[in-house]
Amino acid sequence: MKIWHLIADVDNFENLTTLKQEDWEKLRFDGKKLIDTWTPLAVRVIKDSKKSDTPGLSSGAPVLSLKAISILRQKGTLLFCHV
After folding, report:
1. Are the beta carbons of 43 and 23 closer than 8 angstroms?
2. What is the pLDDT of residues 27-68, one digit of tens each?
3. Which of 16, 32, 46, 53 is in Cβ range 3.0-4.6 Å of 68 for a Cys bridge?
């Protein structure tokens, strides 16, 4: 089994933030499951750098491109954590 630890290199690759200030509350972990109420967040690039398949999100929450998801699924099981 391979386990990857994702680290966003925000000094060299694009970095994202939410468009709406109130969306930060959605990213705050309080122990409650969000799968039943989750809606995608609108984000924008705050540091226009090289494109990445795992751009940094200011909160530290992982962000994956469709390409990254596809590659990871080919390598094995991709587990999503719902927080």
Report:
1. no
2. 777 777 777 777 888 888 887 788 888 888 876 777 888 898
3. 53
